Amino acid sequence: QVQLVESGGGLVQAGDSLRLSCAASGGTFSRYTMAWFRQAPGKEREFVAAIRWYGNIQHADSVKGRFTISRDNAKNTVDLQMNSLKSEDTAVYYCAADRTVVFVENFGEYDSWGQGTQVTVSS
């Protein structure tokens, strides 16, 4: 497992942008699939975006064209650039990592998780 620490959450208005960052330590970062999930109050944790160790990227349909995931293997970080934020993007955002992910949308495949960072979008 790797240790993950998210940062960058906050309170913004609809239409604003925010950039989340996740710093990893304790593993060979470049070999991990990294992902972002989110969980709103009363809802299940849902997939947002993932980037595999070889660069393949997937975004959830709900964020395509607005959010972009990226990674920096030299810095052991994965970022989520969020543009055109909507009130429905309000949630706790979690960073996740695993070396053997098959279905990136399945949160059960990840064995390392950060503590989460709150993103609140006011309308």
Write the layout of secondary structure elements.
Layout: E1 3-7, E2 10-13, E3 18-25, E4 33-39, E5 46-51, E6 57-59, E7 67-72, E8 77-82, E9 91-98, E10 112-113, E11 117-122
Parallel strand pairs: 2-11
Antiparallel strand pairs: 1-3, 3-8, 4-5, 4-9, 5-6, 7-8, 9-10, 9-11
Descriptive report:
With 123 residues, this protein is mainly β. The protein is built from no helices and eleven strands. The strands form two sheets. Strands 2, 4, 5, 6, 9, 10 and 11 form a seven-stranded mixed sheet that branches. β5 (46-51) and β6 form a beta hairpin. The model has no long low-confidence stretch (mean pLDDT 96).
The average pLDDT value, as a whole number, equals 96
Q: Structural class of the secondary structure composition?
A: mainly beta
Q: Which sheet architecture does the biggest sheet show?
A: 7 strands, mixed
Along the chain, the helix and strand elements come as: EEEEEEEEEEE
The percent range for strand residues is over 45%
From the spread of the alpha carbons, the general shape counts as globular
Terminus-to-terminus distance: 38 Å
Rg of Cα set: 13 Å
- Number of helices, counting only DSSP H or I runs of 4 residues or more: 0
What is the share of helical residues?
under 10%
Low-confidence stretches: none
Q: Count all strands and give the number.
A: 11
Quick synopsis:
The chain has 123 residues and is mainly β.
Quickly list its features.
single chain; 123 residues; mainly beta; seven-stranded mixed beta sheet; four-stranded antiparallel beta sheet; 11 strands; globular
